[in-house]
From TrEMBL:
The active site is at 111 (proton donor/acceptor), 127 (nucleophile). Pathway: Cell wall biogenesis; peptidoglycan biosynthesis. The keyword Cell inner membrane does not apply. PANTHER family: L,D-TRANSPEPTIDASE, L,D-TRANSPEPTIDASE YQJB-RELATED. Residues 27-151 form the L,D-TPase catalytic domain. This is L,D-TPase catalytic domain-containing protein. Gene3D superfamilies: L,D-transpeptidase catalytic domain-like. Residues 1-19 form the signal peptide. It comes from Bacillus atrophaeus (strain 1942). It comes from the Bacteria. Keywords: Cell shape, Cell wall biogenesis/degradation, Peptidoglycan synthesis, Signal, Transferase. SUPFAM superfamilies: L,D-transpeptidase catalytic domain-like.
Amino acid sequence: MRFFLCSILLMLSPLWPLGENPLPGDPYVIINKASNQLAYIVDNQVEGIYQVATGKTDDLTPEGEFSITVKAANPYYRKKNIEGGAPENPLGARWIGFDAEGTDGRIYGIHGTNRDELIGEFVSNGCIRMHNQEVIHLFDSIPLGTKVLITKDSRSFEDIAIEHKALTKKQDVPVQ
């Protein structure tokens, strides 16, 4: 009986706290396709801004707000059967997958790269590529369930974050 009650409670309980999402202070990631930059926001401040690579064409990297559903260290590259950690693996050191376009976090993601020279360019098939050191930092910092906003916007990260309730006020933003 106890197992049955616990099972029902688990099915009914949310994975994220009830209320607004994100709450001020919750981790939040914004990717701006206009500048090919990613901002990581936590504790009501922009912790860092990183250069990224996005889709070859504007429609390849989906826009909207998504949730991180999968994280993997040294991800395996299924398309070409390349082991995780191999120098030729285009996914680099980490995979942070999100649920864009009804997927499960295994199609679209923020990941490292084996081609650092392409960071800042429009070269991917839809994913967001980062330098391996930076994606490792992000991977270690953000929990599953973190919201990811992908947009193409000329406004500052602060203005976008305030609109989406990831920040409550403007601040001095560190640039990396």
